[in-house]
Amino acid sequence: MEWTTVETGDGAKLSVRLFKPPASGAEPDPGEDVAVVLVHPYTILGGVQGLLRGMAEGVARRGYTAVTFDMRGAGRSTGRASLTGSTKVGDVVAVCRWVAENIMPRSILLVGSSAGRFHFRFSLMWRNPVAIRTFSFQFMGALISQI
User: Where does the record place the Xaa-Pro dipeptidyl-peptidase-like domain (predicted)?
Assistant: First the structure.
């Protein structure tokens, strides 16, 4: 597990954790070159990336890179949490942009629940050449068993 910081367009610094699959020495198949970005629930109600560690570790054990992050105002991230969550969309976009530019996967799978699901849906308005797919936490168990 590695830590990094991603800066948003308006200057908030987001705490990001990267969970890499165990080293196998082999290049991933093109169909498996997917990064999974997990979006935590509503910050005001206690949502933080730490809640997603078990899921992220499970994704990494199955050979995929997983990314968790604290949205602004949560955990180690700067900025203030908002009641409306409008700034959180920019947080999701900033992390996806960082993943696209630094990890360079073929596609990004966004997974979220509660307000995290809401934020990632609006972040799909971001134009990026990397394909983005979305799932909610309710389907994460089924997803992990399929990959």
Answer: 10-102
Evaluate whether 104 touches 35 at the Cβ level (below 8 Å). Answer: no
State both tokens at 78: 């700067």
Q: pLDDT (tens digit, 9 = 90+) per residue, 105-121? A: 988 888 876 654 444 45
Domains of the chain are 2-23+30-141 (3.40.50.1820)
Residues 10 and 79: their CA atoms lie apart, in Å, by 10
Q: How many CB atoms lie within 10 A of CB 62?
A: 17
Q: What angle do CA 72, 73, 76 make, to 5 degrees?
A: 85
Q: What is the pTM of this model?
A: 0.77
The pair phi, psi for residue 77, each rounded to 5°, is -80, 150
User: What does the longest C-alpha to C-alpha distance in the chain come to?
Assistant: 46
How many C-beta atoms lie closer than 10 Å to residue 27's C-beta? 8
CA atoms 88, 89, 93, 94: torsion sign: negative
Helix (H, G, I), strand (E, B) or coil at 91: helix
